[in-house]
Amino acid sequence: xxxxxxxxxxxxxxxxxxxDGVSLEIAPGEVVGLMxxxxxxKSTLVKIMSGNYRPTSGTYSVDNRAVTFANPAEAxxxxxxxxxQDLALCNNLPASxxxxxxxxxxxxxxxxxxxxxxxxxxxxxxLFQELQSDTRSRDxxxxxxxxxxxxxxxxxxxxxxxxxxxxxxxxxxxSVRQVxxxxxxxxxxxxxxxxxxxxxxxxPDVFQVCERVIVMRRGRKVADKPIAxxxxxxxxxxxxxxxxxx
Amino acid sequence: xxxxxxxxxxxxxxxPLLARFKRAVFGAQxxxxxxxxxxxxxxxSQISPHFATLSNLGNVLQNLCFIALxxxxxxxxxxTGGIDISVGSMMGLSGVVYGVLLEAGSPFLPAAxxxxxxxxxxGCINGVLIAYLRLSPFVVTLGxxxxxxxxAIVVTSNQAVYSFGPAEAFVNALGGGQTFGVANVFYxxxxxxxxxxxxxxxxxxxxxxxxxxxxxxxxxxTGIPTRRVKLSxxxxxxxxxxxGALFLVGWLGSVTNALGTGDxxxxxxxxxxxxxSLAGGYGxxxxxxxxxxxxxxxxxxxxxxxxxxxxxxxFVGLFILIAVLLQRLQAGFDED
Lengths: 246, 336
Prior knowledge:
The complex is a heterodimer.
Chain A: E1 4-13, E2 16-26, E3 31-36, H1 42-49, E4 57-62, E5 65-66, H2 72-77, E6 80-83, H3 95-99, E7 106-109, E8 112-115, H4 117-130, H5 146-159, E9 164-168, H6 176-191, E10 195-199, H7 203-209, E11 212-217, E12 220-226, H8 232-240
Parallel strand pairs in A: 3-10, 3-11, 6-9, 9-10
Antiparallel strand pairs in A: 1-2, 1-4, 4-5, 7-8, 11-12
Chain B: H1 2-6, H2 17-27, H3 29-47, H4 54-79, H5 87-103, H6 108-132, H7 137-156, H8 168-176, E1 178-179, E2 182-183, H9 184-202, H10 204-214, H11 216-221, H12 226-252, H13 263-273, H14 285-304, H15 312-334
């Protein structure tokens, strides 16, 4: 039983073969690390899963049904959400407004439908509590720490009740202390039943929270194994090409 | 359980009173400008006995309302990160349509509706070019500033309109008259201001206007129709320009095709002084109005204390620079 399955996915940009026959499966609730050097094909793979690109060939199935996504909205409708590297937040809005952006809770006010600020603050606060983050729902995103911003972006996927959350380098641009917070958030997403693909350059992050690691090199998958059966040294070797497949 | 308690601080509660007070004081440019308006008024009322009189303040109020109506109009545009420098020309064209129809014998209502439709149509042209063809807002509205003004001259054959046909008495009373001792245009400003404030703060549309200005790409990724949001902002600017024209035409008692010329600069100055950021994402109704108050107050005060009116632009310019400086200081405050 797999949540998503990619079979023999290739993606060509003109003469450039960004992906060359990649197959992988993600089970519901699984946390998988996706590693590889720059240009290994990680982001192309993520963009195919999230509906930004269509594969040149190969099949992509969600819940055992083949899918072709024309845009990210169609992927979201199937429960696949992305937490972008830059988080895609509106800095000028409070946390709750970002969490509910495009999905606002409304209430009746005379003949008008108006924003239900109180409900949204409350629901957002509950989501942050669930994630055990100290993010305040009324604070503006621009006044927040990197970890709190992550919590806002993740709360958005929680609200959507995503089946799979693709996290693109969530720890690349934040301080060491906040990395811990973000890793804790990922653990709680697993507890809540979301599958997560963590795209990362940082070996310790992947070894702390992932059950499995997939390594890409030059458009191919060169390894796909449980964390318990590998080591940072082996993964480094696979990423750089010192080791050929495992 | 204990881990959960360690995070017990998180709530949806408002921040402590002191923090809210600090943020209100240092975070709100509107407050500083309000203080400046009051301080200038206080000082000048000591120098000139003519300032704090009912007739002078009524005059200031009447004049500032026209600028403020346009400033309300461009507030959503500026929040989305755009700019509209064609508001003076849209006001001119709508006013000319209004005047020409009235002169031809049209009753008030059809002429007014035609003027409003003209304003909205002009705004939609700006909006489509900017939102759908992704042209630069500055360049598009620079083009339409010229184009709409030219149309106004064409429509009037470069003749001024001095008579408004059978509806003349009503038109002049609407724009120049008073109700309960206050200029009619003030009530229009009050209604438009309250409605726009509520729409910006409490509707999906308002939320999306701020979201587009904050991060257009992120907003589009959530599935919000960002182009329609932008288009609506420019259409609203056109509508408000026409509303301003309806009152200004009655106040002046005539229409020339120069109606509204140069107003765009004062209007943009008013919104920026009131705390709107040309980078997008920020701006309030109160800010747009208080900015207009300050500009009109400066104009009035300089006349009263006998300063050469040629200096007026210098003072308005200084306040724009001070406003931008305040925004910089706020950003500094936010960093700690």
